[in-house]
Structures are given as C-alpha cells and as structure tokens.
Amino acid sequence: MQLPHFLIFTNTRGSVWQRSIGAYQVAHHCRINGYDVQVIDFTDFFNSNELISICEKLVSDKLLAVGISTTFYSFVNEDYNNPILVPTAGSIFRGHAGVDSQIESAIDFIKSSVPSVKIIAGGANSWQMEGNPFFDAVFHGYSEESVVNYLNELQSGKKKALHKKIGKQDIINGDLEKFDIENLQHRFIEQDIILNNETLPIEITRGCIFKCKFCAYPLNGKKKLDYIRDYDLIKKELIENYTKFGTTNYFFTDDTFNDSTEKVAALHSVFTQLPFKINFVCFLRADLLYKHTEQIVLLKEMGLSSVVFGIESFHPYAAKAIGKGMDRNKLKTFLLDLYYKQWNSEISITCSMIVGLPKETEKDLRESFEWFRNEGRDLCDNWYPLSINTDTHYQSAFDKDHHRYGYTLNVDGEDWVSNTMTHSTAFSISKEFNDIAMYKENMPGSWMIMALRSHGYSQEELMNWKIKDMPWKSILKKRLRMAGQYKKQLLDYINATQDCTI
Known about the structure:
The chain has helices spanning about 20-30, 50-60, 100-115, 145-155, 230-245, 260-270, 285-290, 295-300, 315-320, 330-340, 360-375, 395-400, 425-440, 445-455, 460, 470-495; strands at about 5-10, 35-40, 65-70, 120, 135-140, 165, 170-175, 200, 250, 280-285, 305-310, 350-355, 380-385, 410, 415. It is globular. The chain has 16 helices and 15 strands.
C-alpha cells in the first residue's frame, strides 16, 4: 500500500451493516488513473481519536484531497424494541461546521499536517454543502471522471476552468463529463476491508427508462439497453468477490432492474451459470412485471430475494399524474398473486408509497393503509412524504413546475401546500403509518433483509419475523462486532503495509 493521494470518508447506509457503492466507485476510477486512494467507511463507528490515529498513518505531503460522502445518515432509537430503521436522506453533517464531530476533528488534524489539502464533498446531498466554507469544492452528480480531473489539476498545479464558483468554493457538475459505465471493471480490493460473506452493492446499469413526475434521478428517460455494463465484466466481478470474500449476497443499485426482458434474460444466463448461487435485492416496476410475466420465473431463478416496488399510490388520478396509471384493482390482485402463488411467499415484497400526491386525500391514504393491514398484510409498506425542492442539483417535474401540478411553495411556514394537503400533514401521516408498519408490523424487507444476511441470518428466518419481534439487542451487538472487526482489519492492513510507504 502506498500513502494515498486521496482519502474518502463515508458511513453506514441504514440501521444494520451496509455499505454504499459511490465512494468505492470513485476510488476505483481514481486508482486505475494512477492515484492511490483509501476509503475509510463506517466513520459513524469511529470516535475522534480512533479516526485521527488512522489518519496519522496515512497523511503525507502526497495527499491532495479528502472527500466526504453526503449520501447516508442513519439513526437508531435507544429503545431496541422500536428501532428507527430508515436512513434519513437529506440530513446533513451534525458538527458546527456542517460535519460530524469525529470527521471534523480528523480534517483539522489533516489540514494541520498538510495545509494545502483540499476538502471536497460529493454524493446525493452534495447540494446542501454549497456555500459551506468547510469545503473547497462540491461535486454534483456522477463524479468519477470529474474527481480524476480535479486531482490531475491539483497534482499539476495547472487549473482548468471549472463549471461554477461560489465565493472561493468550486462547484463541479460531474454529469458534464461522460463516464463509460458499459466498460466499468469495478473491483473491491484488499484495502477496502470487505468482511467475509458481507452483502455488497454492485452497479449493473445506470439510469431509468421512465420519467416519473416526482423523481429527480439522473439519466431518467434513457432508452432501453442504454448504460448497461458488459455482462462478462459483471460475471468477472461476481466471481472475484466470491473468490476473495465469499460474497453471494448483493444490493443491485439499478433504478429499474426489469426495464427490459432482454436484459433480465441475459443476466439470468450469467447468474445461473455461476459456480455458486447469488441472492439480491433490487427495484422493479410492477406494471412491467404484469405486462412481461416471463420475467417472474427468471427473477426467482436468478436469485431475487427481496424486491422494492415504487407503487407510490393506489389513487387513480394521483397514480396517473406521476406516470404510474395501472388499474389499482388489477395492481392489488397482481401483488398478492405474485407474492403468494408465483413466488410462493419466498421473496419479500416492499411497496414504497408517497403521501401528498395530487388530489389524493387523507381518507384515500387511510384506505390504502388499511388494505396493507388486511389483504396485503404480508407485504411491506413504507410511506414517504412528498418532497419538492427548487434548489437541488437534480430536479423532478414537480420541482421545476410545481404550480402546474397544484402545489404552492413556502406558504404559512409550510414547504408546500396543495388543494388536499400540506407538507406537514403529509409528514405526520407518513410517521403515523410507518410507526405501525415500518417499525412494528412489517417483516424485514427491502434493503434491510439483504443487509441482515451479513449478520448471519437466513432468508427463511428473517421472513418469519415482524420488525417489532426481531432480536434488536442481538442484531445491534453483531453490528458493533462487525464495526470493531472492520476497524481492526483496517488498522492491521495499514500497519502491515507501512514499510511500503517509506
């Protein structure tokens, strides 16, 4: 291991053991372009002294930049019988400068050792860091290429024209520089400290063929079969992860995994020819599955263990308004048939619902909620208040043209109001529903069920629990043990390779 040019701090995604792909994707691309990079993950488990002691061994005049991911912040209630299970997207760093105190302490140490080092922010919430004097640069969007270019500029001392500047802060739009996802050969390496049998994230494709009105993800509206990684490269990554780390469980990061049967069939061939069986969670479109029923068997055979459907609403007008107009009675019947008959209650189904869509009233929402408590009781339902933001990097149709859809912003202390609801009411309803469903009556589903497999639990075991009955003390103890294992292995690796840096 060489002393790094670039350090990246990131943290746990969710309430159980789970790492996200972004920091490692950036690290990989920097590495293949000649830069030594160390990712320090799970920083929420480090105290200030521990993080500084790691940094002491990594800091040198060679260090050009320190990157901080803004994407995931998770909180767990001290009452183990009612854990808060959801990453709080949109929360920002908590220290006085806008960063977690242990990261702030580590950055202070690094800057005292290497005053020229640049502190940069990236990730899904990077827009919240614009104007924060703590950061020299803020990267928006997919930033693999732009980070490499930024490091090139720091190393050469020859600065090119950046996309934007706020005061002394550089604002860099990574999406202006095309990244070749098709030929991505991402690899986790030894210094990433992957734990044995850990569930790992993997990027299969980028973008979504749909353009839902509330959705602000990049590459929305792409064509089918665009931005798909070479299937042979995916196979090689799966085999290497299994050989090095024993990995068989995955989080697929695709926005819509079943956007074409051709892709699903090709990946079915790849996965079923592996010398081991994989299991994965992904996002699917229910209406596509209803239309292309051949996908149902393929997905089960290739290892689908848990699925998230963005149902959003059973209200006819609201669903049609956002681009999801499948008849609600057909949809409900299909979901139950899929779970009980087609998949024999072996694949967890989570339905993501939005509170606050056009013309949907509180009465309508409560009817949907009661359907999940009765007919759909074995499905998992998660409820989220509609968010409308006009100052984010990516903007949805609602963000850009909210008046057209019946929303008025910043009225009487409300983020938004419509003819049927306010943002605060939507937030309250979501909390009320989630307190019953997400935190008590649901089984562990979605990303959580795959994350818990890193803790040694089987699919069958997990699907026989309700959230309220799970052994949370034991789970959180395992999580702490894994954090301790990660910290020890990271320090051992750095110590064992110090001779290489002298």
